[in-house]
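Why does residue order matter? Because the sequence determines the fold. Keep that principle in mind as you read this record.
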Amino acid sequence: MNADFTDDFIIKGKFSLKDFDTEYKGKFEKADGKKMLEEEHENLHALQEKLYADGSKSLLIVLQAMDAAGKDSLIEHVFGGVNPQGCEVTSFKTPNDQEYNHDFLWRHYIALPPKGKIGIFNRSHYESVLVCKVHPEYNLSEKVWKSVDDFDEKFWESRYDSIRNFEKHLTDNGTTIIKIFLNVSQKEQKKRFLDRINEPEKNWKFAAADLSERALWGNYMDAYEIAINETSKDHAPWHVIPADSKLFARVAAIQVIINALEKMDLKFPTLSKEETEGLEDAKKQLENE
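Structure:
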């Protein structure tokens, strides 16, 4: 079977969601997938250690999806074995008063990973052109605009432009960006919502508001399609990964992440002659104790 899905879901050129099958798995088998994920965990752990030691670059992973698409579980299963000192997860909820007192990118900028680390955005700056496009009234909380009538085509183009410039600035300064949209079907979302309702230990995951957002599915798909078309660039591409199978989505995502780390050409620090001699002296002292 084809075991490498790294380049299967990258968006280059015109993108249409209807061309992407949420159920796609190729010849992927569940038993093989578990073994593949284990092997890739080892690769990711080794590369993350190298990124930390190298200290000259950082990796930002942007995760976007509809509710119940599997973002939280993907983070758990893909990054569970990574050294927590070198990895930071930020989950972006509705902005608070302090965040609304700044521009829409501010809270994301201060959460960026420093050099040597992996940063994961569970939802991200894209919420400003996704949920805020479906609910334009939310933008009024920024206190800049007077009416929803202000959110015209020019406004949205400005938002996309700000995001493109933000990401270009990051990549020009040592941050590699991976953007992943977990593409789940409405049918599979219904199944997962029912699981959350029927299984007591999952009840806490379900909120009544989830249904009102589900009713706007078409609006969200339009917003995602436009946002991905506007912002998938060579330096910060989008990957639209089929997510009806959580295991397949995890394997595909970890492969994309590993590929990005491998392309960084990371190196462990090289010691100077004096530092090497110092190690030899330290070794002798310890051995003679």
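The first helix runs from residue 30 to 54.
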